[in-house]
Amino acid sequence: MKLRAILALAVYAIFAVLASWWMAQQSYGWFPPEATAEAKLIDDLFSLFTGLGTFVYLGVIGPFLYALVFHRASKYDFSDGPPIEGSTALEVVWTAVPIVLVLTLSAVSYRTYEKMALQGPQQLVTLPQPQLMQSAYAAPFDSTPQEEIKGALNTAPVEAIDVTAKQWAWVFRYPDQNVTSTELHLPCDRRVRLTLHSDDVLHGFYVPAFRLKQDVVPNHDIDLELTPTRPGTYRLRDSLFSGTYFAANQADVVVQSLADYEQWLADAATQTPTAAYNPAAAEFSTYQGRAVQGWRSVPPAAPPLVNYAPKRSLESPPA
Amino acid sequence: MTDVTVTPASINTSQPYPGAPDNWKRFFTFSTDHKVIGIQYIVTSFIFFLIAGLFAMIMRGELITPDADLIDRTVYNALFTMHGSIMLFLWTFPVLVGLGNYLVPLMIGARDMAFPRLNAVSFWMVPVVGVLMIGSFFVPGGPSQSGWWAYPPVSLQNPTGFWLNGQMLWLLAVAISGVSSIMGAINFVTTIFRMRAPGMGWFRMPAFVWSVLAAQLIQLYGLPALTGGAIMLLLDLGFGTSFFAPDRGGNPIMYQHFFWFYSHPAVYVMVLPAFGIFSELLPVHARKPLFGYRVIAVSSLLITFISGIVWVHHMYASATPPWMRMLFMVTTMLVAVPSGIKVFGWVATIWGGKIRFTTPMLFSLGGIANWLFAGITGIFLGSVPLDIHVNNTYFVVGHFHYVLYGAIVMAIYAAIYHWFPKMTGRMYYEGLGKLHFVLTFVGTTLAFFPMHAAGLMGMPRRVASYDPEFAYLNVITSIGGFLLGVSTLPFILNMVSSWIRGERAGDNPWRAIGLEWLTTSPPPVENFEEIPVVIAPPYGYGKNEPLVANLRVEGG
Prior knowledge:
The complex is a heterodimer of chains A (about 325) and B (about 550). Chain A has about 325 residues and is α+β, with helices and mostly antiparallel strands. Chain A has two domains: about 1-70 and about 90-115; about 155-305, Cupredoxins -  blue copper proteins (Immunoglobulin-like, Sandwich), CATH 2.60.40.420. Helices cover about 40% and strands about 20% of the residues of chain A. Chain A has a six-stranded mixed sheet with strand order 1-9-6-2-3-4. A five-stranded mixed sheet of chain A has the order 5-11-10-7-8. In chain A, strands 12-13 form a two-stranded antiparallel ribbon. Chain B has a single domain, classed as Cytochrome C Oxidase, Chain A. Helix content of chain B is about 60%, strand content about 0%. The chains are: A alpha+beta (about 325), B mainly alpha (about 550). At the A-B interface, helix 2, helix 3, strand 8 and strand 10 of A face helix 2, helix 8, helix 9, helix 10 and helix 11 of B.
């Protein structure tokens, strides 16, 4: 009997490990494509969490369901179960194991975060920053993306781009060329530094394919650094609720080779600024004279005047 | 305005005890009986649950297609704002306060709460909050459209220009609700500290009382921050101050700190009583003592402390510096430890027991399974790099609906079924109850599980329109949402009809151990003819030991 229990437990443990491994592999397919070096790091971390999370889930739900199936009272059995009130050994184990687990996950997350080197909103901090960032942990994952970031940082100048969010439009400005655009063009395999401003309320800069997000705060410029690694067209979304046309506040992000990118910049610089198509303003204008209207909204800003204002609808695949 | 439809109260229960008006009208009076107030809380908040649920179903109707075509964007924004606000401030908080109100004095052997009149005042502020919230639909410009967070500057924009606008009413409602809850918290904490029956030491208190104590302590330290934040925002909106208005030199991020300093622990204010309910119900319906009772009890207080230092995990993507992100990541992850201890304890409780699948047991088991899943996705959200991707997406919406609906609402249903015979003296219909459970569990899974997938693909929360590629997941979610709407029908039918003509249940239909089961069903005014003297810990199943010295002998 004892042996059978141990065997059953061993079989279930093997099943749980295999299932967790499988889920960890599957998790890569739950995301949009990886378009930055940072995305790779985050997907690896997510895979680790998925694997461990699945194992914990199965580890608890297995005995739980087993008890529900096999430890039920028969119809006329009104007796009580055994009066077991606890077990110090078990309780110590299931306190200690989660502590170790969550501290490990914190440490691995910390390591990933450090590799991402996002910059972030440091200028808002007035306190001296404690040096929490020590690379004391062994690299848990493939360190190629990190090397790529380093390589990109070392070999090329960082592209600085100003990003302005407003109700409800995104405007991108390339200060060196003095080019403005409603589409964000980025060079592939280069470190890019975005400086995020807001003209009115809080917004969120979020490109799901980049796995990166940063809220945009009025009166503060926030830097966000990233390294695009995969040419293509991606979707930028406003991620922090910004009022009536929040859902329509999107833009295309085009990652292209350095040559194409420079060509695009040179072409755009020759264009005279024109009013870009703006979904929020267009939708708002259809309200004039409509019979059924909602409550009154903050009017959208006028369509931005930009050098590069290409098209009416977004081209990027949504995910 | 919303009070007139209090249905289940309109049933004549006979309580021929001195001083008690023996009819349903007492539920509409300024009664100071904690049991009347408890039921007033539960019924009132359930009506708001239905209203806010209706809002959710309209929203799911909008989201069943990608375009914003069913309702105007402003209406959608108002609906998600009011859905969240009403669900939290007028359903989850008050219904749990109602359960606590009903049960805590009975469970600790007290005749009433420590401050009965304050208790009634706290309750009667709830309809005021409700009138303000619902009334805001009828002011020019409509209700608040800034989300239940009411983050400035959006919440300060006031496009209609009217001084008395929906946002103003919303802030007033939140401030009043805060005052009501703080008064309730003072009452609960005092009652639990001072009014326990002789012999009821700390480690003889039922786990539910521990969890209510832990939750109400959070209200005491946390709510002043939110209430203060709401008042400052009100001053910014209506009186030209500049606490949070960036165009006048204020700092909108500061508001987020005020807001989340309370509103994250608020999740524990809601989930701790749910944990307490699971801890109460499993021993009764599995006929075994609560496994590791002391550790489960103390882990509630541990959650009280840790939950006070995790709020910045809602703000990883805000203007939050890296050191703060890392610090709060560690504290957030640590909250998983006491929550995990409870789950392991529950599994060990049912292990080897004599389990009966009664309706309250089914809701408890379903709630625990959902909580396990929600807890694990919660750890994902605590990790800064992962949160930077999924923050403000449907992954978060899925996570907290698993907590709030999957675990907390399930626990509330479990508690209502379990103590229904105590409250009314009658038994509910088991078949309708099981139907209710199946609809609720399937609806929860269909509605909230696909949200995680949509979030990982990058669908932001609070959008009235979305890209066609997310449509598939949203259709499933909408179907689940409508199913959850349908699931309330057997519940209402069950409660109303059983209260009118259910079978007489007797004083202790579950053969449960606990002071509340030693008195009559429904209990008399002032609960006990003689205050019980407690001589044993709360979960003596299988031990055949008496719980109290002076009342009827309680066998196992």
